[in-house]
# Entry
Amino acid sequence: MDALPFIRRLPKAELHLHLEGTVTPETLVDLSAHQGVGALDLARARALFRYTDFTGFLMAFKAITEHLRSAEDYELVTSRMLERLARQGVVHAEVYVSVGVVYYWQRCEFEPLLAGMERARVRAEAQLGISACWIFDAVRHFGPEEAARVFRKAAELRAEFPSIVGIGIGGDERRTGAEPFRDLYAEARDAGLRLTVHAGETVGPEGIWAALNIGAERIGHGLSAIQDPDLMEVLAERQIPVEICVTSNLKTGCCARVEDHPLRRYFDSGIMVTLNSDDPALFGADLEDEYRLAAGRFGFTEEHLRELAANSIEASFLPPERKVALLRRIESLE
Ligand code: ADE
Ligand code: ZN
# Structure
């Protein structure tokens, strides 16, 4: 039986999604037509999306981000992202934005770009009924000083833009763990920001312990927790949400085979797992594909999928009253 109609109807949140990773080659071509620089054709745009390993993937992500330049570019990619999510029955998205890449490589101000994103967000909320908020993501291997600029900008802009809810660190864990960001995470928490960390994607469980030690409220990927029963127990006991991204882990080579992926073992151990698409344009899979994969390859029943959707709402940074309303919709879905 195809689970797709049920999956589409299921109200769900996407909690681990990079704005830049939703940009398709077709959209890059559209952007370049307006940018007035050497126009990009579809073949050249598609070539940017090729990679063979995790390092190559990060380079592809950077190359795509570099093609986003103006407020209008950010407005268009945000609109297309939210339209695509709404078509899949996503009711809320917490979206990583690589402010760290913009500062480090583009060396431009972020405020105008945020203004473009906000226009698209407000419009989508009114027209499609989907809500979204922003998680300012730093690139960990650029170091704490660069991350400080990202996090402090999030703290500063939050008063005017409450849609900025949190911070995170992405990039290459093999080059920098979470520990050097401890003080910055404390500062961000004191400023009212919620804390996420990409952890245990390319390194072992020690990367996840470090993320918990600096106060991470949600773990991005958490793939290597399976190697450490004590860590699994802590994650389950404290109900720390893990933002699972199965297709991402397979495509970047972080997980060799789908049958090796710990998704089902985490779920069965009582860990609060959520399904996410990470960078759908780079991995060729949307959130609904992640739910289909869970059903088709991991044996999740409709009731399990309902639980995963409920987890995505509970693990979100939404206010309690909206969580309750959405959880009721999930429960009563026939
Ligand atoms: N930036 C975008 N996607 C990422 C991922 N999966 N890991 C680290 N950094 C990223
Ligand atoms: Zn990610």
Remarks:
- The mean pLDDT is 97.
- The pocket of zinc ion (ligand 2) is lined by residues 16, 18, 170, 198, 220, 278 (CB under 6 Å).
